[in-house]
Recover the amino acids of this structure.
């Protein structure tokens, strides 16, 4: 996959993150054709090993789903409809304190009144 076809956050990420996305996208496009579904599949695969931090993706300390919705089976996801993905922030892999400290570093106002999910949403919003 040419580097120019990568999303900008992946251009600033490690070669491993780029390869993970590119290989999954290639396979998904063979299965589903090019488009949004293939792209979502590639990002979902990326989020199992990487987390969006600022303007790039970093390797997670653990592999696995990054949010409660990613733990569900495909049929359960379809039944539930649209779900919150927290913009690549690894909600399950971080404690409240870790997310609070990231929010503090990003100077997010009102963070002291936020729960874990609200912190993750605010961090994701600031990272866009």
């Amino acid at each position: 996959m040419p580097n120019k076809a990568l999303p900008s956050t992946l251009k600033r990420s490690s070669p491993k993150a780029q390869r993970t996305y590119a290989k999954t996208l290639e396979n998904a496009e063979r299965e589903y054709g090019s488009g949004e579904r293939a792209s979502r599949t590639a990002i979902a695969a990326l989020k199992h090993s990487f987390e969006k931090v600022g303007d790039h993706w970093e390797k997670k300390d653990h592999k696995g789903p990054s949010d409660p919705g990613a733990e569900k089976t495909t049929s359960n996801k379809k039944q539930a409809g649209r779900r919150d993905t927290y913009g690549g922030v690894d909600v399950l892999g971080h404690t409240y304190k870790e997310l609070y400290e990231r929010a503090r570093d990003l100077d997010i106002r009102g963070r002291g009144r936020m729960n874990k999910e609200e912190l993750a949403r605010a961090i994701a919003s600031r990272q866009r």
Notes: The chain has two domains: 1-63, 65-128. Residues 10 and 45 are 13 Å apart (CA to CA).
